[in-house]
Specification:
Layout lengths: L4 H13 L24 H19 L5 E4 L2 H11 L6 E4 L5 H18 L8 H9 L4 E3 L2 E3 L1 H9 L11 E7 L8 H12 L4 E7 L13 H18 L1
Parallel strand pairs: 1-2, 2-5, 5-6
Antiparallel strand pairs: 3-4
Length: 235
């Protein structure tokens, strides 16, 4: 999120200028929220999303979309499953497998150990064992709660209960990017069940992992246009 906050803010402002009410949510232990990241849990994050969904519905009415980025899409779809799949979804670069995503995060610790020339090298299997035994692991300055790790490890993008429309956006560095094959399979499954899916791959910087803060205005514009088209189509 340190790398992505700029892009999220740009998109939120653009959506607000287009007439949408946008609530940016810092999950427990993240950003400006209360709590410590080391105490955050997967179920707690899901509860945060459901609380925010209720608050937005009570305050603004209408149909409240859930917007997720990367692993946030896993949280959003899990929360929406508890809503019966009734909330429309805006998915940016969705992670499909929480287990794979957790492995990639754990690899950061290995990279730091190599760069720091530590004498105590730890493998992925050993880190997973520590977490499964209830021992927190510090990675890149963040303490990872075993309960958060376990929730992420078992999470998969939950689209089976989805009923409402989905806007799916991916970004690639290629001149003509394409949706990842695994993403396309998920999208095809949604469409086969009659779910309306607007899925596009766009060319732009991978802003969530660039060294410097990067912007993809094409992604912002495409997102606003997709939601405006949905509003026009349902009004």
């Amino acid at each position: 999120m340190n790398k992505s906050r700029r892009m999220v803010a740009l998109a939120a402002r653009a959506l607000a200028a287009s007439g949408w009410a946008v609530l940016l949510l810092d999950l427990d232990g993240c950003g400006d929220s209360c709590g410590d990241f080391g105490a955050a849990t997967w179920s707690g994050w899901t509860d945060d999303v459901l609380f925010a969904h209720r608050w937005a519905n009570e305050r603004f009415g209408g149909q409240c979309w859930l917007w997720g980025l990367r692993a946030g899409c896993l949280v959003a779809t899990e929360a929406n499953a508890r809503l019966g799949g009734r909330a429309p979804l805006l998915l940016w670069q969705p992670v499909l497998s929480g287990r794979l995503h957790l492995t990639q995060f754990l690899r950061l610790k290995l990279a730091y150990e190599v760069l720091g020339e530590s004498n105590q090298r730890t493998g992925i299997k050993a880190l997973r064992t520590r977490l499964s035994e209830g021992t927190p692991v510090e990675i890149a300055g963040y303490v990872l709660n075993p309960l958060l790790a376990a929730g992420l490890d078992h999470a998969e993008l939950r689209t089976e209960p989805q009923l409402a429309p989905v806007v799916w956006r991916e970004v690639g560095a290629e001149a003509e990017p394409r949706l990842a094959p695994a993403s396309q399979a998920q999208i095809d499954g949604l469409r086969a069940r009659g779910v309306a899916v607007d899925a596009v791959a766009l060319s732009g910087p991978l802003f969530w992992q660039t060294v410097e803060i990067a912007e993809s205005l094409t992604l912002v514009q495409s997102t606003v246009a997709a939601l405006e088209a949905y509003y026009v189509g349902t009004s």
